[in-house]
Amino acid sequence: MTQLQDAPASQTANLDWSTEDVGNIIALEHVNTCCADQTLVTAFYIMGMGFTRDPYMNVGLNNFWVNIGDEQIHIPTRPSQVLPGHVGVVVPNLAGLAQRLESVKELLAGTKFRYEVKSDHVVAVSPFGNEFHAYEPDPRFGGMRIGMPYVEVRTRRGTSAGIARFYDQIMKAPVQIVEDEQGASAHVRIGTHQTLIFRESDEEIPPYDKHHIAVYIADFTGPYNWLLERKAVTEEVRRHQFRFQDIIDPESGEVMHTLEHEIRGMHHLMYKRPMTNRNADQNMGAYARGGDILTPF
């Protein structure tokens, strides 16, 4: 037994164990942003970022599911959508990522694609304008080797407190308001190693274009009934899920931000669906037998 387990209750009673709490939102599964050209989608997400196209679902030309560890980006073929903010991802190594992104520059010329190598991460912007911040594995990401540890959304000034109240009181998720040099942001804890961040900004928030996120929750009826009473449910329950768009401050009733949430219950058939991930560092010149598959953890 550890020294902490042997310690008398009087010595451990005042310790803060809140980091062990996961709250009601169990997992953030995917971000959905439509794009108009799947050739560009392939060049950026598969060839450049090194992710994996789901080999089993939506393998035609009308949709494109990109596996990133246990998470996904869904990319239906429709007019392009852009999430105002960025998606945080973990990749095995940044050097390989930078080489791949450099290799697709010519293919993506004339689009919004760009990338920049920072001190501890790489910023990559898709041909359609969606931004990703890629990091190498780090203890702050819970042992993740490849995956999506956070999504950061840009919101208007003065919204953090109302957003925090919504996720704390209605969604029953642990929330922390963080003040830093950029201002205030609401950090919503999801499961054991994911975060949904709403960062206040002076930048213009573009009109909402129907992009969405999908999350799994344990208490399904609590948030559903509260939103239904306020006529905020935008898609009724079917196949263990419903949708809403407006993040409402329960204190004032004001809409703080608009972001469609695809809310999935624990009976949803996609919950904990195994994802296939390839090792993008494999190539003919330096092939390693048995190294084709990359596990998220």
How is this structure best described in words?
The structure is a single chain. The protein is α+β, with helices and mostly antiparallel strands. It has one domain (21-271): 2,3-Dihydroxybiphenyl 1,2-Dioxygenase, domain 1 (Roll), CATH 3.10.180. It contains six helices and 16 strands. The strands form two sheets. An eight-stranded mixed beta sheet has the order 2-3-4-1-13-16-15-14, with helices on one face. The radius of gyration is 20 Å and the shape is globular. The two termini are 26 Å apart.
Q: Give the N-to-C terminal Cα separation.
A: 26 Å
* CATH class membership: Alpha Beta
What would you give as the CATH superfamily?
Answer: 2,3-Dihydroxybiphenyl 1,2-Dioxygenase, domain 1
Label the overall shape: globular
Question: What layout of secondary structure does this protein have?
Answer:
Layout: H1 3-6, H2 9-12, E1 25-32, H3 38-48, E2 52-53, E3 65-68, E4 71-74, E5 85-90, H4 94-103, E6 114-117, E7 122-125, E8 131-135, E9 147-155, H5 160-170, E10 175-180, E11 183-190, E12 194-200, E13 212-217, H6 221-229, E14 233-238, E15 241-248, E16 255-264
Parallel strand pairs: 1-4, 5-8, 9-12, 13-16
Antiparallel strand pairs: 1-13, 2-3, 3-4, 5-9, 6-7, 7-8, 10-11, 11-12, 14-15, 15-16
